[in-house]
Amino acid sequence: MLNENEQRLPPQASCALTTVKLFRGWINRRDRDRLRFQCHMDIAMNLRIELSQNPTEEQRQAILKPLRAYNGSKAEGNVPEHIALLVRDDNDEILGGLHGRFFYQWLYIDLLVVPEQARGQGMGSKLMQMAEDLARERRCVGLWLDTFEFQAPEFYKKCGYSEIGHIADYPPGHKHFFFQKRLIY
Hints:
There is one protein chain. β1 and β2 form a beta hairpin. The longest helix is centred in the middle third of the chain and has 18 residues, at 57-74. A six-stranded mixed β-sheet has the order 1-2-3-4-6-5. 39% of the residues lie in helices and 26% in strands. With 185 residues, it is of the alpha+beta class. The chain has helices at 4-7, 11-24, 29-44, 57-74, 123-137, 153-158; strands at residues 81-88, 94-103, 106-113, 142-148, 162-168, 175-182. α2 runs antiparallel to α3 (29-44). It has two domains: 4-44, no CATH class; 80-182, Aminopeptidase (3-Layer(aba) Sandwich), CATH 3.40.630.30.
């Protein structure tokens, strides 16, 4: 049981003192379990969870900031650099292209759209090759992407990508594939 002086400590200090006592065997098992629960409750007392149905970019960035700080302490290159290869028509309208981001010495391709009138004519292969060339220039380990089975998984295999996993029934009745192409072996 905590004495009067220990109960006046801030929750984190009280929690640390309780942990020390647990290891020294100063309290019995029933009190230990109760104090462990109380310790966790004290730390989170001023926190609440709130659902945001349409989070703003500011809210997203607030969540992302501590994650980036933590990840940055473990590995370099944790701030993404976005690129786009744009397919334009004679009127300068964008009809498709490739969008990706460099992150941790990899290029993640999150969008690839070949205009319908250009499909089967090498446009997709050209976009993928240009992305690979950019990744090589930046000395990336490789490229990775994800796609649905009703999109073009066989196309990526023809481009030299290997499947590294999939999720079944995403969306229901279909598979969601993950592919990579390593440039540094």
